[in-house]
Amino acid sequence: MKVIKNLRYNIKHKIKICSSLILALTLLGCNSMPSATEKLSVERTLVIHAAANEVWAFTGGWTGIDNLAPTVITSILSNGNEIGSFRKVNLKGGGIVEETMVDKSETSYSYIITKSPLPLSNYTSTISVKDLGNGSSEFSWKSNFRADGVSDAEAIKVIAGLYEGSLEVLKKRYSYTNKK
Length: 180
Hints:
By secondary structure, the protein is an alpha+beta fold. The chain has helices at residues 2-27, 52-59, 65-68, 152-173, and strands at residues 40-48, 72-77, 86-91, 96-105, 108-115, 120-133, 136-147, 176-177.
């Protein structure tokens, strides 16, 4: 009987300790650690004073990602320019990102990263240009992903930096409107 009483006491005591530890970690902010289950997202847009087909001609080529992304040295098309096409993107400073196109329309395409040195996983992205009429268009680059080996904030910073660099390229090429 004494053994069962001691066992019950030990279980209750351990439950109290675990509950206290969980509460302490929550209060200390450990709930802001990267989540392996939550997808992060980044989107950058720019209203450009140029026709959508002109902007798409510059930004929309599957092998023309080097026009848009200043961190890219070259991109190599391996098997076409349609859904299922594969490309390797050589990054400045080294590293290769391998991507596959998963969707395509007249002025957009979506792709996934299949292999990368970047600190993220489950990356899906869409580059698009929307015709706004009157000779204006909206460029958009958006993605969803998970942080891998870094905090959520660090992973977001990497992708946001890439997208913001692309907007700077477009701002040098076209007149534009800042969205508030």
